[in-house]
Each structure stands twice: as C-alpha cells, then as structure tokens.
Design goal:
Layout lengths: L4 H15 L5 E2 L10 H8 L3 E4 L2 E4 L1 H24 L8 H8 L6 H8 L16 H9 L4 E3 L8 E7 L4 H9 L7 E6 L4 E5 L2 E5 L1 H4 L2 E6 L7
Antiparallel strand pairs: 1-3, 2-3, 4-9, 5-6, 5-9, 6-7, 7-8
Helix pairs in contact: 1-3, 3-4
Length: 221
C-alpha cells in the first residue's frame, strides 16, 4: 500500500495512542479535520474510522500502523547504532528518515541490527517475518567479531566504535565495511586475517567490529 508521509504520520499517532490505551486521537492532536484530504484517503483505504471526537484504527489500519511504527523504531536504532547520528532531539529527523525505509528495506535493516525488539526509548518494535525466521533458525546474520569461532569468515558490516583513534587504527588494518575477514584465533588475543595480512587486537576492539557471517561452502548468509 502506498501511503503519503502525512498519512503514515497519522497512523503512527494512532499507534502511540493505542499503546497508551486510548482508542481515539483527537483532531487537535494531529492537527487535522475530517475533511482533510489525507484523512479522506485513509478512510477510502479502509484504515481509519471517523468519529465525532477524532480518528481511530480499523483492523486493517492497525496492521498498517504496526508496519509504520516498526520502520520508525528501526530507523531510530539504525541512526543510533550504525550511523551514530541520533539523539532525542532528532525525532523530526527520524520521522523523515523512516519514510525511506519501505518495501523490504526495513527487513534489511532489521537483519543488520539482529532483529532488535526494543527502540532506544525501550518501546517494543513489532517483529517482522525476518525476526520470526531468525528465531526459528537460530541464525543471526550480523555479529560482533567476538562471537565468531576460529576460522569463521565474514564480511564486515559496520564498525561501532565512536572513538576516532580506534577507528583510524582499525581502518589502517583494512577493517572497513565490505571487506572480508577471517578470524584465526580468539585467545589470548583476537587474530584475524584481511587479504594476506594478519592482525591482533584485544576483545574490546574486536567486539566493535560487526560482521555478516559467510556460511561455509561458499554460501553467503
Ligand atoms: Zn523510540
Ligand atoms: Zn527482523
């Protein structure tokens, strides 16, 4: 279903209200009225009901709202954990960003973030089919290097450190997103191979390198 950003924002407001145990969101709260074109389009799609005091979900609307909120909370986590450009004052940014995560992109991000269950505010992220699948199969695709076994290979997904010094050190070793990495040894230091070079780092550094595991026999997960 293709909804406008404004329409998604209304569904989001309805979801927030629902989480707080309220069925109806007043027109005032979402700065709209029953004659608003966006409200009319949601009505035509069968996603909302118009009541005298405000709007409420239909069953279908709640299903759609669940997807909107999932993208919103995944966007928050992506901005905080991967892009490092998030704080509470950037809620508006998140709201714009979430609208970009459509049609399968949310699944990719969910997988990258290991199917998280809560947003930075501690609010639940409604699971997608990718989360159910990961739970059933026990396969978590993106892991810190410290979770790999000796001789496991992976492709670097992202680096979590916020310290420029550490980042420079890692970059000098070729620890960059997209590069293949093989863990050679876990103790007493983490020794890994990138290309033809081997490097040793301690656990505190290794746990900040996130790797997408490559399954044996050349099948990429
Ligand atoms: Zn949140
Ligand atoms: Zn997932």
């Amino acid at each position: 279903m293709k909804l406008t950003d404004k329409a998604e924002d209304i569904l989001e407001a309805l979801w927030f209200a629902d989480e707080e145990g309220r069925d109806i969101v007043s027109y005032e709260d979402i700065q709209t009225d029953p004659n608003d074109g966006v409200v009319q389009s949601l009505l035509n799609e069968g996603l909302i009901e118009i009541k005298p005091e405000g709007l409420c979900f239909t069953i279908q609307g709640k299903i759609e709202g669940r997807q909107v909120i999932r993208r919103h909370r995944l966007a928050e986590l992506l901005m905080r954990d991967v892009l490092d450009i998030w704080d509470d004052s950037q809620e508006e940014w998140v709201c714009r960003f979430e609208h970009l995560l459509k049609e399968g992109v949310d699944t990719k991000i969910c997988t990258l973030l290991n199917h998280p269950t809560t947003c930075p505010h501690g609010k639940p992220i409604p699971p997608g089919s990718c989360c159910e699948h990961a739970k059933d199969s026990g396969v978590y695709n993106v892991l810190p290097l410290t979770e790999l076994k000796s001789e496991d290979s992976g492709r670097i997904a992202y680096i979590k450190t916020k310290e420029p010094e550490k980042m420079n050190k890692l970059m000098a070793m070729g620890v960059l997103p997209g590069n293949d990495i093989m863990l050679m040894q876990r103790f007493p230091a983490y020794i890994f191979r990138i290309g033809y070079s081997e490097f040793a780092i301690d656990a505190s550094m290794a746990e900040e390198i996130y790797v997408r595991r490559i399954k044996r026999m050349g099948v990429r997960s």
